[in-house]
Amino acid sequence: MDKPQGWTSFDVVNYVRKMVAELEEKKPKNTKVGHTGTLDPQATGLLVLCVGSYTKKVPELIKQDKTYEVELTLGKVSTTGDSEGEITGVSDKVPSKKDVAGVISGFVGEIEQTPPAYSAIKVNGKRAYELARAGKEVKLEPRIVTINSINDVEYEYPKVTFTADVGSGTYIRSLAEDIGEKLGTGAYMSALRRTKVGDKSIDDAIDPKKLTSEFLQKTLV
Questions:
Q1: pTM surpassing 0.85?
Q2: Among the options 40, 82, 165, 178, which is catalytic?
Q3: By CB distance 3.0 to 4.6 Å, which of 6, 9, 64, 120 could disulfide with 198?
Q4: How many separate helices (H) and strands (E) can be counted in the chain?
């Protein structure tokens, strides 16, 4: 599926689950549909779904590499690391193109990354974002993640765009914040689109609003 902006990943799962249930003449609660990697509401792009017995493959498919088209905004930070949070200006510094390219290239390879507080990681049985939204302090431990490549870097202050191919468990919001910190300007992820999950491409995805029973039935055969 090509997740639209403003939809949660569960919105897409729930939407497809109802359609599959109608095809199979079941109740939605008895229909298995799961996704293979969360996309935040403001992000768009490829959301690979598993239906029926294929939901058993979700843990395996979540571990696949992913490719994103990323936009950062320099000079400001966000409480959530993206455009959904409270945004504050922190610096008027304008880095050179050479500085931006150099800093970004330094993040390719295995890096230590701390997941954002507003994430789905569980802390003592609760999602981190639930605790953060309740005003509680969330402390997540850094982890090693892999940035396979960062290409097509374009920079026109305050916007930086690039394509990132990353390993499982990588948070692009954290990458954006880390790039901003390294540049001394601050930064937040202002746009994100996922274009690949493993060997699956956005070119083969469909907007859920354009999904028909006929298309779904053909796909599931």
A1: yes
A2: 40
A3: 64
A4: 6, 14
